[in-house]
Amino acid sequence: MLQLLGILIFVVGLAVSIGLHELGHMIPAKKFGVRVSQYFVGFGPTLWSRQGKETEYGVKAIPLGGFVRIVGMIPPEEAVKPVKMRGRIGEIIADARSASVDEVLEGEDYRAFYHLSWWRKVVVMFGGPFVNLVLAVLLFTFVQVGVGLPTTNHTVSQVAACVPATSATECTASDPASPASIAGLQEGDIITAIDDEPVAAWTDLTAALATRPGQPVAITVDRNGEVLVLTTTLAAVDNNGTTVGYLGFYPGTDLVRQGPLSGVETTWNYTGAVFNTIATLPVQIYHTTRAMLGIEERSTSSIMGVVGVGRISGDIVSAQVEGYSAKLKMADMLNLLAGLNLALFAFNMIPLVPLDGGHIASALWQGIKNGWARLRRLPKPRYVDVARMMPLAYGVFGLLIVMGAILVIADIVAPVSI
User: Fold this and answer.
1) Model pTM?
2) Of 32, 136, 262, 359, whose CB neighbour count within 10 A is largest?
3) Active-site residue, from 22, 91, 265, 296
4) Please, what is the average pLDDT of the chain?
């Protein structure tokens, strides 16, 4: 039941994010006088709709997308250069142009989108992704300022029994006892000093231990208000080619509230990672396909579709782990939704139609053409013909469907293990 609740929360969060994305397109379009004939959240059969003054608002059955129908996005034939392409490509261009022209009501050609200045087109098309970016910042900020980030401290949460041969192995009979267990370190001890050097944070402690491999040390701890000094000799272990001191315990964590700009910083850092993932998308899909076919194991860093993210949402809500409170679950769910909005922002900024980035690119190209014509004192150039991009748009749309299908199947037969 809790698993289903987590999935439902994710679906609702996704639908709200998409709905706000579409508002980011619709509001500036109407502000600039463009007619918007439809605003829908979801795809497929219509579950509910209501006709407004000039816009039909509604919800469809599949909450995996949404759309606003902005009238007149493609210029009529007389407003662009003649199209010389023939055959099926020419038919696609002509059909797209005809459908766009038919949406313009008689006497309202001045309200068509293609008449907007290039910068207004950018505002309309960037409005959707921008809303997702703002949502990501707000959600990250709410979690980090209101709840806090798990921060490692210098309190002992568990004592290691031995000095393992490698960091990936469990203790064996031949492994020596850990210096922490020999010293008598206990769960709950707060380490306050190493050899009388004060320890105020986890970084202080690791730095003090790292420089003393194989050396005897005096560990000052606070145990339930009592100050004790424990002695032991640190083990010497290899850490990426460097020999460091090893005590042998696992630290505790605190939720530390961050500053008001922490959400902006997190969004900035994650945005770079998301764009890097998009840049390597063909490689990611290749490995995901191999995992789907059982040829290789699916990586824990693999990209996921909505099925995979929904499953993780269910796991978060249904998790029964000591110390994993409802507050932490809420924080993780909000972080998941923040990451989802960040992905929506980055993906929609890809400069290919039918994605928003493709329309933004065409508007920017119009601005460049207009500026170049002004510099040369030439007449204003004709509109950029978005209809010529329709064959590419269909190809991109087909690739998105294939990619989505691969991710859905992979998320079912070879889910990512977190």
Assistant:
1) 0.85
2) 136
3) 22
4) 90
